[in-house]
Amino acid sequence: MTDGIFIAIGIFTLLCGSSVILCKSPVYSAFSLILSFFGLAGLYILLESPFIAVIQVLVYTGAIVVLFVYVVMLMNPNSSGAYRNWIFMIVSAFLAWAVSLYLLKALTLGVAPAVGGAHALSLKEVATLLFTKYLWPFEILSIFLVVMIVAVFALAKQSKETPNE
Amino acid sequence: MDQFDFIVLAVKTLVILVLIIQVVPVMIYLERKIAALIQDRPGPNRVGPLGLLQPVADALKLLMKEDPVPSNVNKFLFQIAPFLAVMPACLSLAALPLGDFFEIGDRKYLLQIADLNVGLLYIFAIGSLGIYGTLFGGWASNNKFSLIGAMRSASQIVSYEIPLALGVTGAVMMYGTLSLREMVFKQSGLLLGVLPNWGVFYQPLGFLVFFVAAFAETNRLPFDLPETEAELVAGFHTEYGSMSFASFFMAEYMAMTTMSAVMTTVYFGGWQIPYLSDEALFSMIGSRNILALIQVAVFFTKVMVFMCIYVWVRWTLPRFRFDQLMKLSWGNLIPIGLINIVLTAIGLYFWDKR
């Protein structure tokens, strides 16, 4: 039963993931991205981590992809092939090949992300870890994010003051 | 879980879904009647006694209308957008506790589709997906007014999700759980012997922030900037007709129902009757199933009170301007929400009772 669900969700996620890069229209790509994130959330639920699944939907599908779609819709969405640059294509293909090779190597070595044996964290455990063991990384990340927000504000304000010619 | 449990779950899901969809026609009638009351006119009174069949007439009218697809729209997204709007609204019902439990033989079944231990987050996560119907519908219409409506909707909903979450965080800290069911149990009894032990009395500030943000999150007046008829014709659903339009309409009402249900559950004691505990009521009636029915009725009464407040506010307050809307979220609601979290943390530290 669980295997069947896993295979179904896996195929769904892979199909949506590949249609993200195969679709000509960026809006369809964004739509596929939403669906593939849903598939990922389903996989997290199968791994008995509903908290991660819900956060996945809340943060990625509910907020970040909204901004993607927003930007895509404001630009001209029907310009397909904006990045038909051979050098880009070759470099990105090489990078993708290298990454997948590395992942394959990790699989054979048995040091792949320990999904099967991983202990599913409950909300309480996540919170405890976040406020004890990972307190400093967490705080540093928050400061980093605040710095970025301030920087964006500063840049946006600067470009407004200098008239655009 | 054996076969019988599975069938009960399926029937339960269907019944809860149908039950909550029935809020839509009731709200169509109430919206018109309350509007009439506020504007000092009779309102619908021709179709059936007291105009009670008006929602049926409206639904029939919408069903029989033509469902046009303009020639320059993106057909796939244009037709899928109404579904994208309704689906999240239906999905978010899964975590709402309508009552305690009912019995078949000696087995107990919860009056809730799934008791998730991340229930509140689940509702927020699914609720945040409702925006895609608006966004894709507005863009696919290939109409500048629709696009502006969709863009407004996106920025409004993303901005107001933050005060919505901040407002409810204080309550979550207090209850120490995200499960909506446990939250209801923690609100039983009396506070200081006078008031019901409801979350709203501990978290008035948090409730205020949540309440205001809930209006913006469901695109209701005074925050219905995505569909301002004076500026944008009808915003994102300008090009839609017939049942496609009705789907957007239904999605709005169901989102309102979900928000009202969350407010009821988190701040107003869910299915519980004030001053009357479940056990006392059970000893009076002597049947668990009748008690369950009473609980569902109480829950829906509380939800309908909030729905009527939604309508009341709609016909009372004028619309915001878009910059005022953003200022209200980022300048007022978010600071109040943060202050509420700090106050709650201090309060919990000193009064470590719960």
Structural class of chain A: mainly alpha
Distance between the termini of chain B: 34 Å
Residues in helices of chain A, as a percent range: over 70%
CATH topology of the largest domain in chain A: the name is: Four Helix Bundle (Hemerythrin (Met), subunit A)
Number of domains of chain B: 1
Task: Write the CATH homologous superfamily of the largest domain in chain A.
Answer: NADH-ubiquinone/plastoquinone oxidoreductase chain 6, subunit NuoJ
CATH class of the largest domain in chain A reads: Mainly Alpha
Question: What best-fitting shape of chain B do the alpha-carbon axes yield?
Answer: globular
Number of helices of chain B: 15
Strand order in the largest sheet of chain B: 1-2
Order of helices and strands of chain A: HHHHHH
Tally of helical runs of chain A? 6
Number of strands of chain B: 4
* Oligomeric nature of the chains: heterodimer
Count of domain modules of chain A: 2
Nearest-integer average pLDDT of chain B: 83
The greatest inter-chain interface is formed by: A-B, 21 and 26 residues
Average of per-residue pLDDT values of chain A: 79
Unreliable sequence segments of chain A: 112-117
What are the segments of chain B in which pLDDT stays under 50 over at least 5 consecutive residues? none
Strand content of chain A: under 5%
